[in-house]
Each structure stands twice: as structure tokens, then as C-alpha cells.
Amino acid sequence: MVEAGASCISGGDRWVLCDPSGRDEAPEEEVVRVLTLPLQAHHAMEKMEEFVYKVWEGRWRVIPYDVLPDWLKDNDYLLHGHRPPMPSFRACFKSIFRIHTETGNIWTHLLGFVLFLCLGILTMLRPNMYFMAPLQEKVVFGMFFLGAVLCLSFSWLFHTVYCHSEKVSRTFSKLDYSGIALLIMGSFVPWLYYSFYCSPQPRLIYLSIVCVLGISAIIVAQWDRFATPKHRQTRAGVFLGLGLSGVVPTMHFTIAEGFVKATTVGQMGWFFLMAVMYITGAGLYAARIPERFFPGKFDIWFQSHQIFHVLVVAAAFVHFYGVSNLQEFRYGLEGGCTDDSLL
Predict the structure, then answer these.
(1) Is residue 185 within 8 Å of 211, Cβ to Cβ?
(2) Contact between 170 and 132 (Cβ < 8 Å)
(3) Is 143 in contact with 189 (CB distance < 8 Å)?
(4) How far apart are CA 120 and CA 116, in angstroms?
(5) Burial grade of 34 (CB within 10 A; 0-12, 13-18, 19 or more)
(6) Which of 15, 291, 313, 341 could form a disulfide with 298 if both were Cys (CB 3.0 to 4.6 A apart)?
(7) Which family does the entry's similarity section mention (predicted)?
(8) What is the residue-wise DSSP string for 89-150?
(9) Cα 102 to Cα 125: distance, rounded to the nearest angstrom
(10) Is the dihedral angle over the CA atoms 218, 219, 222, 225 positive or is it negative?
């Protein structure tokens, strides 16, 4: 309610500014401050509501790297085509079907997830006649498929929702990195099981070491700074080191059996190819090649992260093929372990 004698300035039907002292004019600075701030806040709220509505309806547009918030800035060589922050899981999942910098990262591991889920189910449903120790060997293969499925599912989920918010991005990045460690650990299990099938003691030692190193990598991955761009090379180094821990059992296997036997019936050629794929992918990811040399040219397709994803899926499939061949060789030996068998 306005007192009698007060001077008022009307702004239409939205606001009225009065000077209760009765002066003819309200102080100029106070007029500007009182009128401008509410209008600015109102316009900001309208813009925010409009943006959230567009995001919810899937009508957002990609934005350049330099306008991203700091928590979404990961690769400064990808200049255009980024998703804006989208505080809606519905919008994040709808973005799977849009073209942006994460489209390739999502689909490479989403399709890989479906592939290994189907392969895992088919392997688990194979008749027991294809195994020497059905329950034990299905558990061994199951560990590999569990690691692969978890790794690929955590990966495509992270790349789908990491633009939701900083908290969601941090949480899913930890799952993503943990999944990589689980894949590496799971890959070691069937290989060590069949390679050292007739030598249970070294098999147990190597499996224990791999599990300790894998769990250590998962613990390190829970460090908040581990996911920052600054520690990109650290991430690659941790997982590369975990994978290279297989060098020792590989040398043991090769020396005990001889190079020729290890690379033929021992399937070391396939495992060597798998290692080359993993190392190449990790190296390209850490160095951000090829976009480092052509900024803005690989924003959508063929960036280093996508190449890394493709090589991970291919390497996991090569590993499965090699282990399957090794399992068939073991099955073909009468009695499982003979004087001519591996180890």
C-alpha cells in the first residue's frame, strides 16, 4: 500500500516504484538498481525455462568447445558438435539418436555390449559335452564375458549421460574406468586357466596377482581427479600397466613350451594381436591422435576415443577366439593332461 504524498513511477502493470519521502523523484541509482536487477533475473529465468524445455523435447543444438562448462571440457581438439549440459536423463538417452561428438563413442560400445552379451549367452548354453569340466569351465568363460559386458555397458552409459551434470559425470566415469579393469581381469582368467591347465600352482599365483592389480586399479579409479583431462596419460598408463602384467606369465609359458609350440597350439599369436590392439588404442587415446594434428576435422567421426573403442571390442573378440581355440585343443587331449600337453 502506498502512502499519501509519495512519488511513484509506474512500469505498466508489472511494477510500481515509489519514494515514500514524498520527493518528486526517486534517487536515480536506486531506480536503476531496483528496476534492472529484477528484469534481468526474470529474463534469465525465462531463458533457462526455454532451454530446459527445448532439451526435454529434444530440440537442443550442438555447441562449440569454448562455451562448454569446465566439467564437460575433455578434448580441446574437438572444436564443434558438443552436447550442452542436459539435466534430464530422458534427454541424455534421446541424444543417442542424435549426431554429436559422443555419437560414435556411444554406439561402438553399445553394439559391442550386445555382441558380447549374445556370445556369452550362447557359450553358457553350449552342451556340457563341449567341456571337460562343464561347471568349472563355464565359470571361467563367464568371468570373461562378465568383465566384457560390464566394461562395455558402463562405457556406453557413461558417454550417454556424462553431460547430465558434474556429479553424474563423475559417478559414471568411475564406473567406466572400473569396467576397463574388470575387462582386463576377466580376460586373464580363461587364458591363464587353459594355458596353465596342468600346472595349478603357477596358475593360482598368476590369477591372484592379476586380481590384486585389477582391484588396485579400480581403487585408483575412484579418485575424483583420475577422470580429469590432466590425468589422461595417467589413466592410459594404469590400464596399460595392468594389461602388461601378462608379460611375465607369457614368458613363463613360452620358455616352458618353446616358441613354436606356444605360438601354434598355445594360440600366442592371437593373444599377441590382442595386446597390440589394446596398446595401440590406449596410445592413440593418450596422445589424442589423429585430432591433435587436425583440430576440428574429427569432431564427429574417427576421433581417438572412437578408434580406442573399436580396438577394445576387436581385441576382446580376438581374445575370445584364441581362448576358444585353446579350449578345444585341451579338450582334444585324452585325459586332459599328458606328457605332450602344454605345461
Answers:
(1) yes
(2) no
(3) yes
(4) 6
(5) middle
(6) 291
(7) Belongs to the ADIPOR family.
(8) HHHHHHGGGS-STTHHHHHHHHHHHHHHHHHHHHHHTS-GGG-SSHHHHHHHHHHHHHHHHH
(9) 35
(10) negative
58: phi > 0 → left, psi -120 to 50 → alpha, else beta; which? left
Q: Could you tell me the end-to-end alpha-carbon distance of the chain, in angstroms, rounded to an integer?
A: 96
Closest CA to 188 of 313, 6, 323: 323
Contact of 213 with 242, CB cutoff 8 Å: yes
All residues at 6 or more sequence positions from 194 whose CB lies less than 8 Å from its CB, including other chains: 323, 326, 327, 330
The conformation of residue 82, written as its DSSP 8-state character, comes to: B
Q: How far apart are CA 55 and CA 161, in angstroms?
A: 13
pTM above 0.85, yes or no: no
Are the beta carbons of 216 and 158 closer than 8 angstroms?
no
Whose CA is closest to 156, among 226, 76, 195, 102?
A: 102
- Distance, CA of 151 to CA of 278 (rounded, Å): 14
Q: Write the single-letter amino acid at 275.
A: A
Give the span between the Cα atoms of 140 and 125, in whole angstroms. Answer: 14
Which triple of cell numbers denotes residue 60? Answer: 537442443
Any binding-site annotation on 159? yes
Distance CA 317, CA 127 (A): 22
Cell numbers placing 195: 594355458
Give residue for cell 570373461.
144
Query: Under a CB-based contact definition with an 8 Å cutoff, are residues 190 and 141 in contact?
Result: yes
Q: Which residue has the cell 575433455?
A: 74
**In the numeric block, which cell numbers belong to residue 233?**
596419460
Using CA atoms, how far apart are residues 182 and 211, in angstroms rounded to an integer?
Answer: 9
Given a contact cutoff of 8 angstroms between Cβ atoms, the answer to whether 106 and 160 are in contact is: yes
Q: Which helix (H) or strand (E) holds 91?
A: helix 89-94
Does residue 305 have a known ligand-binding role? yes
Span 150-209, pLDDT tens digits? 999 999 999 999 999 999 999 999 999 999 999 999 999 999 999 898 888 999 999 999
